[in-house]
Design brief:
- The chain is α/β, with parallel strands linked by helices.
- It folds into two domains: 133 residues, Aspartate/ornithine carbamoyltransferase (Rossmann fold, 3-Layer(aba) Sandwich); 154 residues, Aspartate/ornithine carbamoyltransferase (Rossmann fold, 3-Layer(aba) Sandwich), CATH 3.40.50.
- It has 13 helices and nine strands.
- The strands form two sheets. It has a five-stranded parallel sheet. A four-stranded parallel sheet has the order 2-1-3-4, with helices on both faces.
- Helix 2 packs across helix 6, helix 2 crosses helix 13 and helix 3 crosses helix 13.
- It is globular and about 80 Å long.
Length: 376
């Protein structure tokens, strides 16, 4: 078949290939991702080939191996030494300096009652001193099944270096200490609470610079806390005035002991027992109270009625010195034994007290459990 020129397929025009221009690309920084930044690991180097070197820390050895069951187990000089040690240990902790002077030591904690400050201060304190604390609730021990306190004390003496006991009856504490061959420390009994009172002395000394010549007013139940404040205060030259209803005043034997200690101190502190809360608070440097109904007490309603007039109010605080502080051993029931305005006001030092439980406990542990190399 012959194609004419008209029907022939036209030829395509030929043009040279031109490559498209490359765009001007610039690097773009990725958008910030706060979550990714938060998850970025931060490396901290801990430890090393050489153990941490402890600074020299010299204490008296005369409390080593001794128990502290009541406030009168320590002399005036020994209390002063413990307070000084607590102050130095507090300084080391705040400076971030290691102070594991009880490395390798262990402490048993026997508690019949719930506890916040006593338990945590002893457990944390023992850890900060390089040792270990073992909590032993009454349901964890064979005493629940009839094992005697004396047998328990002898067994624990083979395992640990010291015992802290928080028990309902002071007689149980005495039995425990009698059967133990290691130091036993009173974490609270129905008779007294020496660790709290010693901590309170530390707090007062920090606030006022000295203890001798101060006046402490205690309002409320003449209970174990009241007993310890009477005895520890009198030993250190602090005048103590207790205001309580006639049905809830402190044990007369404790009052007599406190007066005897006050007479021997040389600074002539006074011990006063009254039913008038304003008379007790007059010109006081510190006003102190405790809960009106303690753990395990069955006469709660009667106690609440009898102790209501001994509530620490703003009017009571006004009777004290302008520089007076409010103190409470905690736990606290605001607007029962103390006005919330007082408990949370500028005169309150209740949380300084709570903190000093840690430092005081550590001081007692160090003095009673230290190895000979740590003391002179």
């Amino acid at each position: 078949m012959h194609l004419s020129e008209a029907s022939a397929v036209p030829s395509l025009p030929t043009q040279p290939f031109v490559r498209p221009a490359t765009p001007d690309l610039k690097p773009v920084a990725p958008a910030a991702d706060p979550l990714a930044d938060a998850l970025t690991p931060r490396v901290i180097s801990l430890g090393g080939p050489a153990p941490t070197k402890l600074s020299s820390f010299t204490i008296s050895a005369r409390l080593r191996g001794r128990s502290v069951l009541t406030d009168t187990d320590l002399s005036r000089d020994e209390i002063a030494e413990v307070l000084d040690t607590a102050t130095r240990l507090k300084g080391l902790r705040r400076a971030g300096q290691p102070h594991g002077y009880l490395a390798g030591k262990s402490l048993g904690l026997i508690f019949q009652h719930p506890s916040t400050r006593t338990r945590v201060a002893f457990e944390a304190g023992m850890a900060q001193l390089g040792g270990q604390a073992i909590f032993l609730g009454v349901n964890d021990l064979q005493m629940k099944r009839g094992e005697t306190i004396a047998d328990t004390a002898q067994v624990l003496s083979r395992y640990v270096d010291g015992i802290v006991a928080r028990v309902a009856s002071h007689d149980d504490l005495d039995q425990l200490a009698g059967g133990a061959s290691i130091p036993v420390l009173n974490g609270l009994t129905d008779k007294c609470h020496p660790m709290q009172a010693l901590s309170d002395l530390l707090t007062l000394h920090e606030r006022f610079g000295a203890l001798a010549g101060l006046k402490l007013a205690y309002l409320g139940d003449g209970n174990n806390m009241c007993h310890s404040l009477l005895l520890a205060g009198a030993a250190m030259g602090v005048s103590v005035a207790v205001a309580a209803p006639s049905t809830h005043q402190p044990d007369p034997d404790v009052v007599a002991q406190a007066k005897w200690l006050a007479a021997r101190g040389g600074t002539a502190p006074t011990i006063t027992i009254t039913t008038d809360p304003f008379a007790a608070a007059q010109d006081a440097d510190a006003v102190y109270t405790d809960v009106h109904v303690s753990m395990g007490q069955k006469d709660a309603s009667a106690r609440a009625v009898a102790l209501a007039p001994y509530k620490v109010t703003t009017e009571v605080m006004a009777a004290a010195k302008p520089t007076a502080v409010f103190m409470h051993c905690l736990p606290m029931h605001r607007d029962e034994e103390v006005d919330a305005a007082v408990a949370d006001g500028p005169q309150s030092i209740i949380f300084d007290q709570a903190e000093n439980r840690l430092h005081l406990h550590k001081a007692v542990l160090l003095h009673t459990l230290c190895s000979p190399a740590a003391a002179f």
